[in-house]
Amino acid sequence: MDKLAIIGGRPLFGEIAISGAKNSALKVMAATLLTDGVLTISNMPRLADVDMMLRLLMQHGADAKFEGSVLTLHAKDIVSTEAPYDLVRKMRASFNVLGPLLAREGKAKVSLPGGCAIGARPVDLHLKALTAMGAEIELDEGYVIAAAPNGLHGAKIDFPFVSVGATEHTMLAATLAKGETVIHNAAREPEIADLADCLTAMGAKIEGAGESTIHIQGVGALHGGEHSVLPDRIETGSYAMAPGVAGGELFLRHARLDLLGAAVGALEEAGIRLEQQEGGIRVRREGDRCRAVNVLTQPFPGFPTDLQAQFMALMATADGVSAIKETIFEGRFMHAPEFARMGANISVDGQTATVRGVKRLKGAQVMATDLRASMGLVLAGLGAEGQTIVNRVYHLDRGFERLEEKLIQCGALIERIKE
Ligand code: UD1
Fold it and tell me: pTM for this one?
């Protein structure tokens, strides 16, 4: 398993190009199963999770061609409606092939998902929505077996709480359902509107994506289309914190401030200046040290749970005491003891982590526990004194494109140790 060795304490100067958003790309890819036409997706990040999704789509019968960051997908015929355990267990987003297969072929057998070990993460909302749309669903030996012999129909779906995946899944399936589907309490993450843009380019009729109520008018068939994936707001937020821990100034090319929601206020309050300029965002730390800020993770436009670990790294050396409350995923504080190995003063009580800022962290051997937590450890390492070794880098490869290369260009001392 590869490791990263980071020598901390060097301020970062330069430019980092922000890639297309992983979380959007994976769902946009699943949309290809809804049509026998050609879907061309540009600004695709090259990531392990994207490769995993590709393998799954090809197994269902899609042809795929990657040229640079442009992916061409063509699912002319669906050759299998089964998504096996081996391909679904490693990545939760792959579960989203269920709705498209069901909508197009009237049946599907999809393994229950895996993904990062952050809390229980059930799929009950996904299944309730598909059932309301006329699917007959059974669970058998870890698989969801679904059938819609007469096709899916429109339905009123009222989610009890916000779920990104369930909103996207419902939207995908509803494009080909008979009649209108209305999603109440829909997620408003920018990736939802991005997926809706792609589906609209393919002929779907969707209104309200990005708001709490989404209306989808089912159509008889979708055609091929072209779509460019929006920039990754989690990658943006993560690199925006780098000058906060290590000092310096970065230009985040392609990044958009409007995608960051409450993270903008939290970073500015902490003392990181963010300025939208033409073509990207300029970030720098004001003063020598960041200030402690309390944050609460919430669905968009609230502070994203996917930046919580990175923010904890920032707060670990901020001036003062910060309370970080995680409301989206139970058990998403597994990185706290890893930061403690580097000298951070963090105590966790239920859903809240209290971070007492210390002047400096010290390099140590640490273990990446999930994708976003790994980025938190990299940030901590960039600011720490001496060498940090981040073990289990495969988590990072799932979601951050060319991480070492991007940071080295800005003066970081970071090296991959292959094992
Ligand atoms: C997506 C993102 C993930 C991000 C999360 C929240 C992708 C590939 N992943 O994950 O990076 O952290 O949104 O912004 O886009 N839940 C249920 N039942 C369900 C569905 C969800 O109880 O059927 C719960 C989850 O366990 C969690 C909460 O709802 O506690 C929110 O999860 P959700 O928004 O669905 O996250 P994902 O779509 O899995």
Answer: 0.97
